[in-house]
Amino acid sequence: MGQSKVTQRPTLVTDPGPADRPESPSALPGVAPKACDLPALWAFLLYLALSVLCFGRALFGHFTGFHIGMSQDPRAMIWFLAWWPHAIASGINPLLTHAIWAPTGYNLAWQTCIPLAGVLASPLTLTLGSVASFNILCVLSLPLNASCMFILCRYLTGNYWASLMGGYVFGFSAFMLGRIAFGHLPLLLAFPVPLIVYVAARRFAEQMTERTFVLVLTLLLVTQFLLFIEIYATMTMLGALALVLGWSFGAMDARRRILALVRPIIYSYGIATVLVSPYLYYFYFFNFGLLGKSLWLPSIYSTDLLNFVVPTQANELGKIAFLKSISTAFSGSIADNGSCLSLPLVALSVHYAYRHWREPLGRLLTWCLIVVAILTLGPIPHVAGHTLHLLLPWSLLERLPVLNQALPVRLSMYAFLVLALIVSQWLATATTRPGFKIAFVASVIIFNAPNLSAAFWVRPASTPAFFRDNLYRQYLRKGETVVILPFADQGYGALWQAQTQMYFNMAEGDLSAWPDYFLKWPIVESFRIRSYVPDASGQLKVFLAAHDVGVVIVADRDLADWQPLLSTLGVAPVRVGGVSLYRLKDNRAHDAERLLLEARTRFDNDRMVTLIRAASRYLADGGDINGLSVIEVANLNLIPKDSLIGSDLAFDPLNLPHPRPTPDPRFVYMLWLSPWTKDRIALGEYIWFPTAAPMIGTLRSMGVEIHYPVPDSESRISRSKLDDYRFLLVVMTRDQLARIAELPTLSPVEAQPPHTTTSSPTNGPN
Fold it and tell me: Where are the alpha helices (DSSP H) in 569-683?
């Protein structure tokens, strides 16, 4: 790569418009201000003071006892911050862990594992603890984003105060407020994005040599990749789109310069790919089959049309009763409804598009804003929670690898980046009276102000003295496997494990995606949500034995939910430091796959038999078929109440803004029971196909209508994967129901194991 001569940059403006229209400044100044200087430092300190005032003041004196964020995300982020220094110090592969989901282990490459943040924050984590380290990163994240946006805006406008406002619009946007409300650190650390635009603009203006550009861009790409791969992917997609739009709108010279950017950008991506190739190896070759499917439903995590102007409670105005009543109808949580552009910014963007449409830069920014806004709507638009039957462009992106894991609503971050550029451009160039500009700035600050309640942003770490005061060292062996209830992301096990510096392993994990292997164990369903588990005591013992669990731990505040089941373990609990410990004796099993097959076969068969017999008994006793439901037969004790295990999901109205939903009486305890037609009944449960195949065969031989997976017809069964874990729905007449209810079992032959292994391809210590 050769050196390019550094020259003064050309203007992007080719058509200033009518005489009464003020000429837009050249988008790139001839003498670029330094990216890091004293004025930039003052801007950062101002943003930092605002962040501490809004989000950090409730942490004073409680930096390790409370954490920012109201969901389970902070617990996972705190775990990752503790994991990276532990893995590096122990000399083990940081992407493959046995500390969670033991003994099988887990591949962290498909999780938001923040490797760069975890490594860089290691000194803080090792000295202050992972909770304090997480809080510090959260408080610093918004000022970092705002400062990097300030650098970009000041380069494009040359105006300090206009750039300061542009930094605020991006760094303290509704998107960022929603993310800090949830403590979702990977999306909060987005500062490389405006810096990438900044270096691309400097190279476009030939104020940076090609070699320097490749070096800096490569560094920023690797940084963003190691902070969050989803932003890396969406940034790449939208960046390519911006280059195409810029080329189509630009004059001849601008087109030449845009084309000249392509080669060094390709070089940078190529070098970055080589540098992150170890991560990519585990990402693509140990992906647990995730590449071909989405982990989340894009239709749920999409922007509601009203959310563009209606804020959530993360904004101070969102607390107004009228606006709150609207925002609670949006699907998803507060974090997933951070697309409120606000009325002042929407009005300015419309005004800017009208005044600068004939200019290449104005047209580029306008089109970028429109495209991003459309993409955030997801595959199908929603208005106040109601679906509009219209297919949108996002449905095409769902078919692309990696991008099919991205969530539409998260693209709103780029909308605020464009708005920040528009705001800074307008403030720097408009000939409007200063008083009007001041009024506009004030309105933006008011409409975008964060929730002023300090308590809104933080939650207690809820760490019992057993873990907080190192009592665990007296009762647990280093490296032994435990189960902590409530289980996985329903509880605080990952947080407590992080606070012990990974002293013990867990047969669970607080991550977004649970391993399919664990979901196949019958008792695990009840760990997630209250479920019907035949022979719950036996199922629990088999699960614990198969996973070499030495101790079950439950916090005293949750003991009432789990004590009846844990009492069947036949061991007396030890009460210490706010927890109860159930130490198991001789609990090792060597053939976990055989135990899983036997346990799951009994479970799937017994649940379906119970459901069929309950429905038959209900109808035989004169019950109305239209009133048939799981709740109804449970109230009549036709489903054993002592086999209803677990607790109901707890809904935080700030986490999920809808009121706590009324359970569907047809689908409760992981069972389905309802009338289908006038004289037919529908029954359903989640099954694992290898163990339920004999049961399905019996039902088919008796003429029962089968839907597996729902809503497909029975012809799909022959094409289903050997390792499928999906919902089975069977539909039968009253006569069929009565005949099948007399059968002693629905699984006349022993289940056959699948051809795929049930263990993950991980190895080595935790």
Answer: 592-620, 630-635
Helix (H) or strand (E) holding 436: helix 434-447
What residues pair up with 450 in beta bridges, in sequence order? Answer: 315
Q: Report d(CA 195, CA 163) in Å as an integer.
A: 14
Beta-strand runs (E) in 351-493: 382-383, 386-387, 458-460, 481-485
Whether the per-residue pLDDT at 182 is higher than 70: the answer is yes
Interval 275-305: pLDDT, tens: 999 999 888 776 543 434 445 566 678 889 9
Q: Are 98 and 762 contacting, i.e. CB atoms less than 8 angstroms apart?
A: yes
Q: Looking at the structure, do residues 44 and 85 belong to the same domain, yes or no?
A: yes
Whether residue 9 lies inside any domain: the answer is no
Residue found by looking up tokens 């999780």 in the block: 111
Do both 203 and 70 map to the same domain? Answer: yes
254 has which bridge partners? none
CA dihedral 417, 421, 424, 426 (to 10 degrees): -130
User: Amino acid letter at 284?
Assistant: Y
CA dihedral 718, 723, 729, 730 (to 10 degrees): 50
Return the SS3 of 689.
helix
pLDDT in tens, 467-521: 999 999 999 999 999 999 988 888 899 999 999 999 999 999 877 677 878 888 9
Residues 476 and 444 in one domain: no
Q: Is the dihedral of CA 268, 273, 279, 284 positive or negative?
A: positive
Residue 644, pLDDT above cutoff 50: yes
Number of structural domains the chain divides into: 3
Listed range (233-237, 275-279, 386-390) with the worst mean pLDDT:
386-390
Q: Are residues 419 and 506 in the same domain?
A: no
Residue 214's contacts (CB-CB under 8 Å, 6 or more residues apart) are 1, 264, 267, 268, 271
Within a domain: 758: no
Q: Answer whether residue 426 is part of any domain.
A: yes
In whole angstroms, give the CA distance from residue 404 to residue 396: 9
- pTM flag (> 0.90): no
| Gyration radius of the chain's alpha carbons | 29
Contact between 224 and 192 under an 8 Å Cβ cutoff? The reply is yes
**Residue 259: is it exposed, middle or buried by C-beta count within 10 angstroms (0-12/13-18/19+)?**
exposed
- 3-state SS of 306-323 is HHHCCCCCCEHHHHCHHH
Q: Is 18 part of any domain? A: no
Range(s) of the domain holding residue 146: 38-399+406-456
416 contacts 173 by C-beta, under 8 angstroms: yes
Domain identity same for 188 and 214: yes
201 with 294, same domain? yes
Residues 298 and 361 grouped into a single domain: yes
Question: How far apart (Å, rounded) are the C-alpha atoms in residues 457 and 70?
Answer: 7
Does residue 748 surpass a pLDDT of 80? no
Res 649: pLDDT: 55
The answer on 662 and 560 residing in a single domain is no
Q: What is the DSSP string of 258-291?
A: HHHHHHHHHHHHHHHHHHTHHHHHHHHHS-TT-T
Spell out the residues 6+ positions from residue 574 whose beta carbon is closer than 8 angstroms to its own. 475, 580, 581, 583
